[in-house]
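Data deposition worksheet. Section B asks for the primary sequence of the deposited chain exactly as it was used as input, without tags or linkers unless they were present during the calculation. Section C holds the resulting structure in token form. Section D is free text for depositor observations; keep each observation to a single sentence. Incomplete worksheets are returned to the depositor.
Section A, Depositor: J.P.
Section B:
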Amino acid sequence: MLRIIFISLILLFSSVIHVNSEVINEVIIKNNNRVPKATILTFGNIKKGSDYSEKDLNNILKNLYETNFFKDIELEVQDNVLILTVVENKIIQQIQIKGIKAKKTSKLLLESMKLKDKSPYNEFSASQDLTLIKNILSTQGYYFSKVKSSIQDNNNDTINLIYEIELGEKALISKIEFTGNKKIKDRKLRNVITSEENRFWKFISRKKYLNPMQVELDKRLLKNYYLDKGYYQVDISDSSARLLDSGKFNLVFNIDAGPVFTINKTDLILPDDYNPKNFTKINETLKDLENEIYSFSKLSKVVDQIDKVSLNREYEFITAKINEEVVENNLLNLKIVISETDKKYVEKINIFGNNITLETVLRNSLEIDEGDPFNELLHAKSINNLKALNIFKTVDAKIEKGSDKDSKVITFNVEEKPTGEITAGAGVSSDGTSLGFSIKENNYAGKGIRLVSSLDLSEDSIKGQFSVTNPNFNYTDKALTFNVQSIVTDRLTKNGYKSSKTGFSFGTSFEQFEDLYISPNISSYVEKLTTNSTAIASLKKQEGNYFDTNLGYSITYDKRDRRWRTSEGFVSSFIQNLPIYADDLSVLNGYEFSKYNNWGDDLITKISFYTRAVNSLDDSKDVRISERVRLPRDKLKGFEPGKVGPKDGSDYVGGNYAASLNFTTNLPMILPSVQTADFAFFIDAGNVWGVDYSDTVNESNEIRSAAGIGVNWFTPIGPMNFTLSQPITKASSDKTQTFQFSIGTTF
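Section C:
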């Protein structure tokens, strides 16, 4: 803003310029000791013999100031001669960071700053860099840091720009509190925010440090969470950090949830000359909201539908306004007013602040382009798209008048943020212990490409993988993923076999129709299966090396209100894995369905169905042990994982078929005053059956079922989950597990 004001004042008080247009036959430039005349002519877009008006000459000044080469410019026209008298900005010989021992931190600061070595010095950019340094240090926990800048003149008409930094002690979050009429338990609210309490084992996480920008993000996340729950008048009125004697902070969020609102009546108001038939779907969606709990995400879907209508050339200049009126008994009337704006076109789009991210990444996220009709709805969606990339700290947009009354210039200013992440985790459960470690980068080479490298360890398996995801491959709006993976499963002691599987896969994912997603992939793996003397005969028969290339795909119809913390809707998914070239021609089919219902007062139920089937196309070959199906732990509680279904001797060998039916409901009425725990009730029923390699194996072909309660408890060392279940029906060969628990944390 200061820079814009400065340029405007220069334009206002520059030397007198003739009002009438004048042909420039010659250009004289004075005091340009470093910047060549040809460069000034190019950046100023100055051409001899051209007719220049007062506006054109002002544009020359503006263009030259934007190069940052000049501290002052005087412009004058005399007898068809353009005279430019310039004062050049000094060149920065070196930027020095003092007071920081860690080279990694110094490198991060230097890479993030706008000014660089050998670049022209600009006071406005220097002040921005000063603020940027303070913000970066805050994200790393140096809340009390002090930063001063100074300039050292050199003999060769250059300067050294010096930043002196006093880091101070890191500001750690000792405790996070939620106060006020919050109506939602602390355990759930902790899952919403990004800040974390400091623990001695959290030696990797940066979220344990007090960071003002992170706290502001937490407030926005909390507000959106409450709005989605129907708390239309929620007020996250304040967040405060209390300094303790230990030098740490208590982070306090004060929340007034207010009542839950229900949508009473909805209306769609259209201009008189619009055809209502073109807005039928929007109107139907609005009517479906009546008598439903207010939800911010549901309204967002209505806005998305309006965005799609605005892509129609007939409605390319529309805008929409949502009017919300509070009526009695906690009811809301919603009125969406669609109107037509002035017909303007986008003349130019400027993007600033993307020092690392390629400009094409940002432009591909915009819903409007240069030359398109200016549409307020698509402009707002463009801003949201940029924020959704999750690689920018801030995204701001400014709309200005273009070169004529029917055009606009849009300027996006972004501030990049660190996009790398290191996480580590550990877990202990009734099935054993596990460790996990991963490194992520969300903006590799500034191209918006995501890289993930991870390693997971359990008592009988090691899994390592590396994946690359381009969310917008070749500008097609389709994600492309490449994955390399290696899995070693060692069950020589328990079951007499060991499997080593290594290979790669690549695939894509896209929304074919509204809420209908298709995800095809191709995979190639090499597997080595070894056995010992304790293995059953069927396993010994399968010992050897295998090479498989498969084509897989999934088709998902997703009508959930949100993918995370779902409260309403359903999701239906079909998967299939087909052999292209394989040593055993196994075909995997699967189907999953889940339905969610919100009964009010935070009571949410879920009914789900799960099934898998694997069979070999070659009757002479059996399905390999590593390809056989089993029920996941969460699909059949009350039984040891993998210890139901066909049993060959003492080994549970899995089956050709598996299915389960599950019912779950939370129990908000139980101990509502306990802030760190939630309770749930469940009923599971399922079965694993089918043995293709033998007719004599005991399949125990009957339905297994269990019922019980579950508790999710936020403990000082991390979230803990345990279930207490009672089998209802089972086979004599099954191994039950009445009590199951898991606890995990991140570092």
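Section D:
Residues 123-139 form the longest helix (17 residues).
DSSP finds twelve helices and 35 strands in the chain.
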